[in-house]
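Subject: Sanity check before I submit

Could someone independently write out the structure tokens for this chain? I want to compare against mine line by line before I put it in a report. The sequence has 387 residues.
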Amino acid sequence: MHNQEALLARESAAIIVAAGSGSRLGGQVPKQFLMLGGKPVLRWSVDAMLRCNKIANIIVVAPPAFVAETTALLPGDPRLRVIPGSPDSRTESVRAGLKALSGHPPAKVLIHDAARPGLSLDVLDELITALDTAPAACPALPVADALKDTRGGGVRSVARDGLVRVQTPQGFQWDVITSAYAATTDAAVDDLTLVEVRGAKITLTPGSETLMKITYPEDLAVAEKLIASPALRVGTGFDVHGFEPGDAVILCGVRIPHTQKLEGHSDADAGWHALTDAILGALALGDIGDHFPPSDPQWKGAASVKFLKHAVKLAYDRGFRIANADITILAERPKISPHREAMRLATAEALDVSADVVSVKATTTEKLGFVGREEGIAAQAVVLLNR
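---
Independent answer below. Compare away.
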């Protein structure tokens, strides 16, 4: 680390408040210890803080009964320390965190709720920079929804102009926040409240929708989609069918006259079977045989559009859409090029996307292999999903 970076690091510390019981989420385990994307909710914030080289010390305030368990599930980093807090009072937990830092007080301190796992380096950098000149700062988002007041009966509109949603971490110059805590014994909605009443200037920095707070059970599912899942997913698929006596093949939903047809339990549409497998692969949901086993008589002769639309629905249900799809047909005969545009349009319709994100190509194997011997047709597909 360069000398200047080391100096910046010594200036800042962080407190992650993780001592609450999370009773509104239900269940026996506090929400900060529930799994999100393969690791505990708390770990997401800790990892983000550890990646920021401007933060020299991190205090995690845990439930008194979970200090050992919390220590065990976090990295063994010398910047990190776990202390007991109050399961009943967030204010007292923050006070405990400030006390733990008081032996070597930083110039700046960030106070963050573990129930907001979507913390990013951008948010941290904005806050720390703002505290160079501002006594206090916090990330905030504009209020997009209409607001109504239902107090006292009835429903009344509330003007949202000038209103914002504040998030955490909330950042403070050390003397500002410690003086505010020393001057009160009352519980506060958030830490900003304590410095507001003392007239401190507060700077708002850009917030993030991913910095949502997990409060209710449905919030965990939303956080999984926003934070834990990759924004992009790629899947590949491959399928092959041999010929049998017939008068046409079906490829990408289009009937193409030929001297033979493709053999299969369903309509043997190799193009759409490969594409279906590509989507299922991108979602890590197995393959087409897992969802539509050939041993099941209900799928005998079934149109492959059913399989494809099922895969698309699974993607949509998980918050993904089809960004683009690319299908390659490997065949000596019949010639695909006269039917390629119809195949592309049929595929786009089945995927419920614009045709300009769907590609259908064809090639031969130069008379090599089973395709070259005209024993059958193969297809491969690549699909990109984005959230």
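---
OP: Matches mine. For the report I'm noting this point. The chain has two domains: 3-228, 232-386.
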